Amino acid sequence: MPLYEYRCDACDKQFELRQKFSDAPATECPSCGGPVHKLISQSGFALKGGGWYAQGYSSGGAGKSEAPACPSGGTCAGCPSAA
Asked: Can you tell me the distance from the alpha carbon of 49 to that of 72, in angstroms, rounded to the nearest whole number?
């Protein structure tokens, strides 16, 4: 189940809730009962290093030790070329 972050509008406390996709969003702070809003948080998933991209999923062929150069120069944080 996904983990969602909320912030209370009344007491400014931040908390996390593990909810199903089908669950309604939280509306009440567990500490003070005030109204809350959902935060947009950073994902916990990141691909780093040469790994899977350089070993069979790149267009450069399997078995290469380095990923091909990125058109942007490899400046994207999530880009395998930036590792």
From this structure: 17
